UniProtKB/TrEMBL annotation:
Name listed for the protein in its UniProt record: Transmembrane protein 70 homolog, mitochondrial
Tagged with keyword Flavoprotein: no
Biological processes per GO annotation: mitochondrial proton-transporting ATP synthase complex assembly
Classification via PANTHER family: TRANSMEMBRANE PROTEIN 70, MITOCHONDRIAL
Source lineage: Eukaryota, Metazoa, Ecdysozoa, Arthropoda, Hexapoda
UniProt-listed Pfam families: TMEM70 (PF06979)
Record's keyword terms, sorted: Membrane, Transmembrane, Transmembrane helix
Amino acid sequence: MSIRSCIRVIPLLRNSINSHSSCLPRTINFNRSNTHRSIFSLCNKLDIRLYSTENKSESREIYYGSLTPQIKAVKIFSLSSSVVGVIAQPFLYNEIAATGNVPVIIAAYTAIGFFTVVTPILLHLITKKYVTHLYYKPNTKSYVANNVNFFCLTKKTEFTPEDVVVPDVPGMFTTFEVKGKALFVDPRLFEDPEHYVKIMGFDKPLDFKLYQTTDNIPNSSNKKD
């Protein structure tokens, strides 16, 4: 093979290499785009499945009492001070009795007993009706109300709108009753006011109690002019 022929072949080889190199990235990019699309569609399907099952099984918070942190803080402080007072009572009684002053002894014993026993009970009577959280279960169409018990622990009460009784004359800190238990909620704190309407029964026909008994109906035979 002569030198001239070799020189003529070199440009042809360059052109063929450039053409192959330009086609190779396109095929790779095409394969990559296809794989990305398949992975993206698979993730979307999994997200849709997981999202739908979680919404059906888990409960959703629809109400949060704004006074919940304050109530828990006050109850914890009251219980802790009562425990400290009970532990310190023997030492305090000995020191007070050593004074020999009867009025001082009576006043001190009364104050210690009030702050040790009466204060936690009084706080519990005031705050036991307050609903801290209210959850809605879409599966059973029921509600779960959380309250704080005497020892500042969460107590749950599950109910349906059929279990709710709205008293004609509500008492202090009472919005409605559930299975004989009084509960207090603030209508302004509901995320969705429709839940408050369902719980209170405002979506049902109104009963004005316009009825008459047989005793109230006058008998025509008893009428005498």
